[in-house]
Amino acid sequence: MQQTLDADIATIAKISAVPTILEAVAELTGLGFVGIARVTPTSWHACAVLDKLGYGLEPGSELDISTTLCQEVQHTHCAVIIDSVSESEQYRDHHTPRIYGFESYFSIPLYRPSGEYFGSLCGLHREKAELNKTATRNTLMLFADLISRQLASEVVLDEAQAALSDEMKTAKLREQFIAMLGHDIRTPLSTIMNGTEILRLRAPESLKPLLDTMHRSSHRIASLIDDVTDFARGRMGGGISLNLRHESHLETSLQQAIAELQSVFPQRQIVAELPQGIALFCDAPRLVQLLSNLLKNAIIHGSPAAPVQVEVQQANGMFELSVRNSGPAIPEEKQAQLFKPFWRSDNATGGQGLGLGLFIASEIAISHGGVLEVISTDNATTFTYRARIAGPVQA
């Protein structure tokens, strides 16, 4: 019971308009006490109070329900509005006005979203007040209806927040599971990959095509695991983790990434302009991963009639790596979606991955303090990773 009461008081407290409503009612009527009460067949508790008469009530204060007129309102679901107790045949001898010493009084029912009675908007004063004037009465009814509607809104909001909290907890558990699953799969996958390599060296020529397919498939599985694991770790830890070190010949690692993609897509031409002695303070494997993701994206979505171009530049304290492919322009509304996780184009096929490549590439760029940008025209699309060079590296 106490837990439910505390929740009801908290619900009223969360309605930001309540203090303003109480002030407005007091100003409209001239009453010295205005409040919102939670009323049940056996209890009366204050939820919000504007007390200029010194009754000493505050949120959570309790009155004996039998001493209040709100008990009558709870039974009949009808408002009680009294201009003058002493002039009222019905209430002049009632015990409630004598107990609390008021002359004017009102109590209007409030309802939950389900239609269940919640309590009342009530007020009183030690002197006569003209509460039954049409304008005043209608305004009081309007304020009570407004509070009831706000109760409904707060319930909907609480339910939405609870559902969101549950979903966030579920999402966190799901990401933890994905990260652990990715880690646990690596061991048996490594065994398969090592075994395939041994068989490729010893198997007869007739089995080479099958083993080559197994080799490519196992590496594709490893790549998918890396993508999903990076995504999960990034979501849980706030970004891609890096192992930064000084690289004096980064072009060697980048060239290896290009060669691997060229072997997977031998029908596509990749033209690379990589200067010698690229010196950078970075996580080289991560930048290789960034380049690999951009290259795969360019090969899959670019025009096969033109080569994919890779270019690295270092000038004015900036490092730039760009990948350009020919083909139709990417619409502006889709460019904003490219770096979001699991986003795939409308014409994507099942063999084009999970839609994490560009997202992870962008996260790698951000973790390096850089940025990954796209420029798309009618003739070509270019993805450019740009970052400030941390400092000189001795080759």
From TrEMBL:
EC number, UniProt record: 2.7.13.3
Listed SUPFAM superfamilies: ATPase domain of HSP90 chaperone/DNA topoisomerase II/histidine kinase, GAF domain-like, Homodimeric domain of signal transducing histidine kinase
UniProt key word Transferase: yes
Superkingdom to which the source organism belongs: Bacteria
Domain Histidine kinase: 180-391
Keyword Zinc applies: no
Gene Ontology terms for molecular function: kinase activity
Keywords: Kinase, Phosphoprotein, Transferase
Gene3D superfamilies: 1.10.287.130, 3.30.450.40, Histidine kinase-like ATPase, C-terminal domain
Reaction(s) the record says it catalyses: ATP + protein L-histidine = ADP + protein N-phospho-L-histidine
Name this polypeptide is given: histidine kinase
Taxonomic classification: Bacteria, Pseudomonadati, Pseudomonadota, Betaproteobacteria, Burkholderiales
